[in-house]
């Protein structure tokens, strides 16, 4: 179901209220990048870091190992190799989920505090505070008024998603699910500590977090949100990317904000 954004949001709000009477679930589940805000916060931070040559030496060998798997040039420092991988992803030569993982552990050598400082600077440089998806404001206000939990589940690094949420919607940090790099003595290491939340793992992470219960609403923008959307009573595609548009018929009935 598609119409103008204000009209469709009213329809979504009504559908959520109707669904509330038919289920014990009281949670809305949101993707982050492209859904709660425009663009990709993880890419903003990554590109800011590589442009300013801020990545450390610690992840270099891991980056070279990934580059060699795809027959990519692995000369240069961490910033150069990381950018080579990212450009190859944009050209369709490296899978998206692998690049998402890389953009989580590539900050190896940073402490958590140092990474937070980098994230704040990067999001400010990207004018992130102006990129909130305001079409969802009535839904978030409704959730607050009804006492519904709002869970964010993202393939981006947890530290970045927390900062992005703080800069946009002020949702509960305890309901933000995202991947984390491994830490040793407070320093980020070049590997993940938790699985990447991508596709089916988004669904399983949400199910575990919400005690496997059915949830009231699901909101996403891309094909790897489809499993998460399918689980929700009220399914909402938010300015969907082409890959998700191509499978909307499989998610029928679904609301589309665009």
Number of strands: 8
Summarize model confidence as the mean pLDDT.
94
In CATH, the homologous superfamily of the largest domain goes by the name HAD superfamily/HAD-like
**Largest beta sheet: strand ordering:** 3-2-1-6-7-8
Global shape: elongated
Strand content: 15-25%
Structural category: alpha/beta
CATH fold-type name of the largest domain: Rossmann fold
What share of the residues lie within helices?
40-55%
CATH architecture of the largest domain: 3-Layer(aba) Sandwich
Query: Can you tell me the number of structural domains?
Result: 2
Instruction: Compute the number of helices.
Output: 11
C-alpha Rg, in Å? 19 Å
Query: Any idea of the CATH class of the largest domain?
Result: Alpha Beta
Q: Enumerate the spans where pLDDT stays under 50 for 5 or more consecutive residues.
A: none
Order of helices and strands: HEHHHHHHEHEEEHEHEHE
Summarize the main sheet. 6 strands, parallel
Distance between the ends: 11 Å
Quick synopsis:
The chain has 258 residues and is α/β, with parallel strands linked by helices. 45% of the residues lie in helices and 15% in strands. The protein has 2 domains: 5-39 and 130-257, Rossmann fold (3-Layer(aba) Sandwich); 41-125, no CATH class.
Structural overview:
With 258 residues, the protein is α/β, with parallel strands linked by helices. The protein has two domains: 5-39 and 130-257, HAD superfamily/HAD-like (Rossmann fold), CATH 3.40.50; 41-125, no CATH class. It is built from eleven helices and eight strands. Strands 3-2-1-6-7-8 form a six-stranded parallel β-sheet, with helices on both faces. Strand 4 (181-184) and strand 5 (187-192) form a beta hairpin. Helix 2 (41-51) packs across helix 6 (112-125). The protein is elongated. The mean pLDDT is 94.
């Amino acid at each position: 179901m598609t119409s103008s954004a204000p009209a469709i949001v009213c329809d979504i709000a009504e559908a959520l209220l109707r669904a509330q009477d038919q289920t014990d679930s009281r949670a809305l589940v949101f993707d982050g990048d492209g859904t709660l805000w425009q663009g990709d916060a993880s890419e903003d931070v990554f590109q800011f870091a590589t442009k300013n040559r801020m990545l450390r030496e610690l992840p270099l060998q891991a980056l070279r190992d990934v580059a060699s798997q795809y027959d990519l040039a692995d000369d240069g420092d961490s910033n150069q190799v990381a950018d080579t991988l990212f450009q190859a992803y944009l050209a369709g030569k490296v899978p998206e989920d692998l690049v998402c993982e890389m953009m989580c552990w590539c900050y190896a050598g940073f402490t958590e505090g140092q990474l937070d400082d980098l994230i704040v600077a990067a999001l400010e440089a990207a004018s992130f505070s102006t990129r909130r998806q305001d079409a969802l404001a009535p839904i978030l206000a409704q959730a607050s008024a009804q006492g519904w939990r709002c869970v964010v589940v993202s393939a981006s690094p947890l530290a970045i998603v927390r900062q992005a949420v703080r800069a946009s919607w002020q949702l509960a940090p305890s309901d933000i699910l995202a991947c984390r790099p491994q830490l040793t003595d407070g320093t980020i290491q070049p590997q993940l500590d938790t699985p990447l939340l991508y596709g089916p793992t988004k669904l399983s992470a949400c199910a575990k977090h919400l005690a496997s219960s059915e949830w009231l609403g699901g909101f996403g923008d891309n094909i790897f949100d489809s499993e998460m959307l399918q689980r929700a009573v009220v399914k909402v595609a938010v300015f969907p990317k082409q890959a998700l548009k191509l499978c909307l018929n499989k998610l029928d009935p679904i609301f589309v904000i665009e």
